[in-house]
Design brief:
single chain, 292 residues, alpha+beta, eight-stranded mixed sheet, four-stranded antiparallel sheet, 12 strands, 25% strand, binds glycine
Length: 292
């Protein structure tokens, strides 16, 4: 099925957003730390699912990112989070929406992977997390001073040595959003998708716009023809129809990785079996400049 046997690739992002100069270093180092955590899994032959979870857990633990610790607050001053994980080898999806009081929503999503439901929300998601030994916390522990106004989502996409693909997302949603609101991040075909026969993608940005475009589905539909970067670029060109900024990362079944954004900044970290150390960029201009 895949011609990538033995090769692996990982790409992570810290959100489609505007980064203040004093936050640049924390965004860069956070993405490198996340890449290293996932790459360690892939280099030793671990699965793409495990690698994506490992990378996103790092991003969820760092206050500079709007996911897990550091999530933004809704219009009631609460942290409500969404996360998802998709296994491209089985098409299993695990996702949680508006979950509270867990440290790592992506790990709750992972424990749903072999279960029937693909998406649990609110109290039901919390009960599932508690019954499946997730790391629980006081919701107030997730609130940090610097994240109260930020808007973004984190994500990761991986190809493992067996040619299996996975995609994951995690977010605190949009600052000041209506209580109970869910964006694109827990919805397959909108904020993420993975299929070993095609590729894997994770998006970030204005969730309503991304969902209305079914952006992940659009990217999956053209990734083979256009390659990952062009497929994302073409889908995000449509954002003007629905409003809002977005960014995306993707890997196709051959192991080609790409990313694009129309937000001011979009920190991306990448490492593959062919590169010696992680590369990280704060925005596409940096990547383009490094090639030219
Ligand atoms: N993209 C994250 C959200 O809109 O909730």
């Amino acid at each position: 099925m895949s011609n990538s046997k033995g090769r692996w690739a990982l790409i992570v992002h810290g959100g489609a957003k505007e980064i203040e100069p004093h936050e640049e270093e924390a965004n860069r180092t956070g993405c490198i730390e996340a890449v290293n955590a996932g790459a360690e899994v892939l280099a030793r032959g671990g699965s793409a699912v495990e690698a994506v979870e490992a990378s996103i857990r790092v991003l969820e633990s760092l206050p500079v990112f709007n996911a897990g610790t550091g999530s933004v607050l809704n219009n009631k001053g609460e942290v409500e989070m969404c996360a998802a994980l998709m296994d491209g080898s089985t098409l299993d999806v695990g996702a949680v929406g508006v979950i509270k009081g867990v440290k790592h929503p992506v790990s709750v999503a992972r424990s749903m992977l072999r279960q029937d439901p693909i998406l649990l929300s609110g109290e039901g998601a919390f009960m599932f997390a508690r019954d499946n030994h997730a790391e629980l916390c006081d919701p107030a522990d997730l609130v940090t001073e610097e994240q109260k106004e930020a808007q973004d989502t984190v994500g990761a996409v991986a190809l493992d040595q067996n040619g299996n693909l996975a995609a994951g997302t995690s977010t605190g949603g949009l600052s000041g959003a209506l209580k109970g609101r869910m964006g694109d991040s827990p919805m397959p075909g909108c904020g993420f998708y993975a299929d070993d026969h095609i590729g894997a993608v994770a998006l970030s940005g204005h969730g309503e716009g991304i969902a209305r475009l079914a952006a992940a589905a659009q990217i999956m539909g053209s990734i083979e023809r256009n390659g990952p970067e062009e497929a994302i670029r073409k889908a995000l060109e449509q954002m003007h129809r629905v409003g809002g900024d977005a960014g995306g990362i993707a890997i196709d079944r051959q192991g080609r990785a790409g990313w694009w954004h129309n937000s001011p900044d979009f920190t991306v970290g990448m490492l593959t079996s062919e590169t010696e150390r992680p590369q990280v960029w704060l925005r596409k201009d940096e990547d383009i400049a490094s090639h030219g």
